[in-house]
Amino acid sequence: MRVFLMNLDQIQSLLNTWTGLSVWLTLVVACLAWVIYDLRHSNRHIPSMMQWVWALTVLYSGPIGLVCYRYSGRKQIATDNLVRKGLRSVAHCYSGCGIGEILGVIISVGFFALGNLPAAMITFVLAYVFGFALNIGPMMQSGMTFRDAFKGAFFAESISIVVMESVAITTDIYLGGDAGMGDALFWSSLYVSLSLGLFAAWPANILLIHLGIKGGMGDPRDVHSEHSH
Predict the structure, then answer these.
(1) Is 39 inside a domain boundary?
(2) First-to-last C-alpha distance (Å) of the chain
(3) Closest Cα partner for 198 from 74, 98, 125?
(4) In the 8-state DSSP scheme, what is residue 108?
(5) What is the CA radius of gyration of the chain?
(6) What confidence tens digit (pLDDT) does each residue in 212-225 have?
(7) pLDDT in tens, 108-134
(8) Mean pLDDT of 137-161
């Protein structure tokens, strides 16, 4: 059986088109509009922080984020299970890490054209800070002290963030090559890397919840559900 494999140049050529990127961004806007409408009209009971999580997930991953939301984030899901809990948990981590990764890539590569190692370090630090902050924030809102929230989230979230960003940053550097912010490839590779990071950290979150290291997020079918860690 002959297997067709695209080499790096072919993948970059496919991604480096403004037409393709424009189509993707149109899908992102359409998916984001649907999710916002659904959250406001059919799932208003979902905590505000989690609503932001889903909006950011769709902003980063477009139709992929929409599928994740429909599969695990709405009260209309038929059942809840470990796989869905893991997806909600990784989406929560993803929403913060995505902010840091986007800022890191724009600052280190887009503005300063740094090499791979410093770009990776800056991006990872920013992704870690934002990802961790968006996880301990809800814990502190529920009444926990910063010290307790930090201790409770440090180990589990560090594992999730390291897995996610190792895949995302490596992919972005590999695909983006020497592209700058004026190239479609710069933005396309960033979108691809974000989504791959999400899927890479999903199994890790499932395992962390299964082992009791993370509590996962509340069941969206429960109108009284709260964040759980």
Answers:
(1) yes
(2) 47
(3) 98
(4) I
(5) 18
(6) 888 777 899 987 65
(7) 988 898 888 999 999 999 999 998 887
(8) 78
Q: What mean pLDDT comes out for the span 176-200?
A: 94
Q: Which domain holds residue 19?
A: 10-210
DSSP structural state of residue 109: I
Contact 94, 197 (CB under 8 A): yes
Whether the Cβ atoms of residue 132 and residue 122 lie closer than 8 Å to each other: no
145 within domain boundaries: yes
> Are 133 and 96 within 8 A, CB to CB?
yes
CA distance 82 to 161: 19
Q: How many CB atoms lie within 10 A of CB 26?
A: 11
- Find the range with the poorest average confidence among 52-56, 171-175, 194-198, 220-224: 220-224
Mean pLDDT along residues 57-65: 97
How far is the C-alpha of 223 from the C-alpha of 198, rounded, in Å? Answer: 27
List, for residues 95-107, the tens digit of each pLDDT value. Answer: 999 999 999 999 9
Let me know if residue 4 belongs to a domain.
Answer: no
196: closest CA among 154, 152, 219, 163?
163
CA distance 70 to 35: 9
Q: How many domains does the chain have?
A: 1
Does residue 168 belong to any structural domain of this protein? Answer: yes
- Residues counted in the chain: 229
Label residues 118-141 b or e (16+ Cβ within 10 Å = b): ebbebbbebbbbbbbebbbebbee
The model's pTM is 0.90
